[in-house]
Design a protein that fits this description.
4 helices, 37% strand, four-stranded antiparallel β-sheet, alpha+beta, Cyclic Phosphodiesterase, Chain: A
Length: 175
């Protein structure tokens, strides 16, 4: 069995900035998690099925055009979950469409919570650290074109590792 995840990677320099911030407030798990927007949360699959899953993800990528992601400000899932995140001011619909496409076929799965695209910046920390993250990054902002997404596999020693990248289609031009 292999544990996989599917996500849109946050590009540099923002990926490193957010990861370094996360580590700086005591969230050491961030050293083993690339900065991302989750499409499929951790899921255990048969290693033998990875080739079929990759084919499915390639097909999903071909059906979804690239889209703009604008990250701005912070939000939280508290009190349900001890998570603080950077919000998507733009790109929610693109992430929802992409997530719906990849969570079909071999990756059809029930989610524990409704899908809410975000970038985690603090997770399972004490209240003071969560409050600090919420305030410190309230002014964070960046904008990028989501042109691809990744299949990640989890390695006990190294954490989440990209296995393969899937390019989205070019956006269609308005007539």
């Amino acid at each position: 069995m292999t544990t996989i995840g599917v996500a849109v990677a946050i590009p540099e320099p923002w990926a490193s900035q957010l990861q370094e911030y996360r580590v700086s407030i005591g969230d050491d798990t961030a050293t083993r998690i690339p900065t991302h927007i989750t499409l499929v949360p951790p899921l255990e699959v048969s290693t033998a099925d990875l080739e079929v899953i990759e084919g499915h993800l390639m097909s999903a990528a071909a059906r979804v055009p690239s889209f703009v992601v604008h990250l701005r400000g912070t939000g939280t899932f508290r009190p349900v979950s001890d998570v603080v995140y950077v919000m998507l001011a733009e790109g929610v619909a693109g992430c929802e469409r992409l997530a719906a496409e990849v969570r079909k076929g071999p990756l059809a799965t029930e989610l524990e919570f409704p899908y809410h695209p975000h970038v985690t910046i603090a997770h399972d920390l004490d209240e003071a650290a969560l409050d600090r993250a919420f305030k410190d990054l309230a002014g964070f902002e960046c904008r990028f074109e989501a042109v691809d997404f990744h299949l990640y596999t989890h390695d006990e020693a190294a954490g989440w590792q990209p296995r393969r990248e899937f390019a989205l289609t070019a956006p269609t031009e308005a007539p």
